[in-house]
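subagent[fold] <- orchestrator: predict structure for attached chain, return C-alpha cells only, no commentary.
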Amino acid sequence: MAAALHCLSSSCLALPSKFGNLSLNGPSTSSASSHHFPSLSFSANLSHDFFSKGFLNLGPVQRSVRRSVVCDAAPTKKPDSAEKRARQAEKKRIYNKSRKSEIKTRMKKVLEALDMLKKKPDAQAEEVLSIEKLIGEAYSIIDKAVKVGTLHRNTGARRKSRLARRKKAVEIQKGWYTPADSEKAHSE
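subagent[fold] -> orchestrator:
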C-alpha cells in the first residue's frame, strides 16, 4: 500500500511525459538490413532514483541473433512414385468395385430365379436349364474375378458352392434329384 501511495508523488504523475521520450533507436542509426536488434535508449529527464527504488527495473538487454527453421503446416508434396501408386490404386479400386458388383448382381439373379422356381407349384424339370445357364454365367464371372485377383480363391469357391447348394436344394424339394444315390456311393 505504501508503494501505491508513493506512486502518487509528483515523479509518478510525470511518468507518461517521461516515457514519451523513449526511443527504440540507439545512438547510431542502423540500416534496415542489419540483423541485430537495437537497444533502448532513455532521455536524461528520467531520474535514476525512480528505477533503483524497484518501481521499474530496466537494464540493458543483450539479444543474440538467432536463426530459426520455419516449419510449414501445409502437407509436403508426395514423391512421384507415391502419386503413381495412388493413381493405380484408385483405378484398381474402381475396377474391383464394378466386378464385385457384377458378381453380386449375377448371384442375385440366380437366387431369385431359384426362389421363383421353388415357389412355383407346377414347375417342370426343364425350367432348371435356364437357371443352369444363369449359374454358368455367374461361375464365369466369379472365376474371372479370382483370376485377376479381385476375389480370393476361397471366396470365389464359397460363392459358387452357395449357388450349387441352393440349386440342389430346389431339385431335391421338387423331386428331380434324389440324394440317396450319392449316399450309397459314399458308403462303399
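orchestrator: received. Logging for downstream: Helices lie at 2-6, 10-13, 15-19, 48-52, 80-119, 127-148, 153-174, 180-187. Confidence is low (pLDDT under 50) at residues 1-9, 28-34.
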